[in-house]
Amino acid sequence: MSNTHLLAEGVPTRRSWTVIARRVVAVLAVALVAWVAWLWWDSRFPAIYSTVPESAAVLGHGGHSRSSDELTGDHPTRSIADLGVDPALPPDVRVTLEARSADLSNATGGVFSGYTLNGSTPGPEIRARQGDLVEVELINVNIADGTTLHWHGVDVPGAMDGVAGVTQDAVMPGESFTYRFLAEDSGTYWYHAHQVSHQQVMGGLLGPLVVEPTGEDTADIVMLLHTYPGGSRTLAGVPGQTRQEFAPGSIVRVRVINTDNGTSFVWVPGAPVRVLAIDGTDLHGPGPVQQTKIRLAAGGRADLEVTVPPDGGVRVQTAGASLILGPGEAGAPETPAPAAELDLLAYGTPAATPLAHAEVDKSYEYIVGQRPGFLDGRPGYWWTINGKMGKHVPSFSVREGDVVAMTVTNKSSEVHPMHLHGHHLLVLARDGVTSSSAPWWTDSLDVAPGESYDVVFLADNPGVWMDHCHNLPHAVEGLMTHVVYEGVTTPYLLGRDSGNEPE
Ligand code: C2O
Ligand code: CU
Fold first, then answer.
1. 141, 330, 416, 469: which sits with the fewest CB atoms below 10 Å from its CB?
2. Which residues have their alpha-adjacent CB atom under 5 A from ion ligand 2?
């Protein structure tokens, strides 16, 4: 068939095709620009808003709706500010912490802008006995952004959780805030800032908290791991190797706390070790393990039972920092991390846990992904939760008393240490394989790429609770949502104009 023939039938010429194509491209380009502009616009958080839409209505602020099925119950509303400890109860432990920003130097001589509590970082070790009422007054001396304290792993009452814009306003320079909570559960915990936390935590606004069990009196020592900006890993602020005097034969509970943003492994070269507790909760029937590394998710804790040998020292080791327990200058070998990793789904002995078999009231999926888009107007490759980004991420609504099942799935290419405030999660299964171990309760759970965890928790602590990734820069990049109790409102606000910036 020839061209002449086609022309004769009135088919558009090559030139007119080009014109049509150009127009189509132009229209598509305009549509694309309009669509991207709309995506940008639609991603922006209001300058001021509430985590709980109903509070915004109460307060008369224009909030945005984070989820449509929130607050549909008939519970009377309560303000989170009222969910504290009876002010008439006298404290058993009282601490004042003065928070400052300061130029600090790390071991390599580099200077970074960091933070101190009572003049040092990490801040003082706070110790309480199980059942104690703990009272901590936080004074912000000069931190321009403001600050707060969050009690990582402690199921504090709603008003005491220390999340700026959700459970309180950031404490500005010259101001103070008093935290009061009952140390109901013994265990290893830590505290840290939850205002601009990705900067303040790394910069050193943190410290250890130990709740000792009543009765028992074993020797114990805290091993708080932290990497300061531009520095190497430290143990209680000291880089490299630290030693602690213990007589041969001593049995020591070593409380390891990972305050960094990434996973940390701990191991004990050449000696058996028992993992007594994970994230503050004792494990049932933990047996000795050897040549095995123990995982600590970011924010996570592991209590290890370590025995000082009769003829020297023993080393508790992590990448970059270690602790030698023993008499005098006792040495202890250093080894690379063992290949074998302890699987907490197959460690210890099972014990009755009613929650594992309780009837579930609510089931949620928490699927972590990643895609390009806008997060509060910024273009990037951001984290998604259930396919949503930023202000479109749903929060999880619960009622007091609910048994809540959650499947946490990681469809991204990085590990995410998932942290729910105010509750402990019971791990039921990983990738569909159910636990054959001691009940594994966690508050900081590493979910590796491709993994899926089934967890369950009891909604027994009314409030508005962050449920986020504890690789704190990831939280800034959108890996952050809340578990919201029906009927709980908050008078505190988020957004550019609020002064509160919890991530
Ligand atoms: Cu340790 Cu929301 O934090
Ligand atoms: Cu993450």
1. 141
2. 416, 469, 471, 474, 479
